[in-house]
User: Which sequence fits this backbone?
């Protein structure tokens, strides 16, 4: 069973943070006010470790095998984000730091976000993805919906169709 993952940055959190930082630093609010979408490459470290208890009972090393993902963000006339789409290729290798067991997964999505007026985000994984929220660390195949806070904390798991596999079980 997946353990709490509070505070860990998912690829969507990384993508959204990258886009929002780019907006602030580059002074692109004028572009946003014109309601033009912004597209950014999703950067992430080539390797990082989730400590024991963050996702599994054991530490998990994540190695990025391939990443050319892009996050495209659309805005309303006031410059507020309205929707986002994550596309591109992402291949991750997950390794149990205790046993050495590993699995490499193509998790290219895509993913879709809707920014709601109340500050929540409706996020939908389609295709193959790796949602990592408190109590959820799995390979999702198909459509899986989540409602999250503006800081990407899980509020509600929505409907899903397809399959899901606990990553911790795959590398136990």
Assistant:
């Amino acid at each position: 069973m997946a353990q709490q993952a509070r505070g860990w940055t998912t690829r969507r959190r990384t993508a959204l943070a990258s886009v929002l930082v780019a907006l602030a630093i580059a002074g692109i609010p004028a572009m946003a006010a014109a309601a033009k979408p912004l597209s950014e490459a999703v950067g992430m470290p080539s390797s990082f470790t989730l400590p024991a208890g963050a996702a599994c009972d054991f530490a998990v090393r994540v190695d990025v095998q391939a990443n050319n993902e892009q996050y495209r963000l659309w805005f309303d006339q006031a410059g507020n984000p309205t929707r986002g789409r994550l596309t591109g290729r992402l291949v991750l290798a997950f390794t149990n730091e205790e046993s050495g067991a590993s699995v490499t997964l193509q998790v290219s999505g895509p993913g879709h976000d809707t920014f709601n007026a109340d500050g929540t985000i409706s996020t939908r994984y389609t295709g193959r993805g790796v949602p990592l929220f408190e109590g959820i660390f799995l390979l999702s195949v198909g459509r899986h919906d989540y409602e999250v806070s503006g800081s990407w904390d899980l509020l509600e798991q929505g409907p899903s169709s397809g399959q899901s596999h606990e990553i911790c079980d795959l590398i136990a």
About this structure: The radius of gyration is 16 Å. Residues 1-33 have pLDDT under 50 and may be disordered.
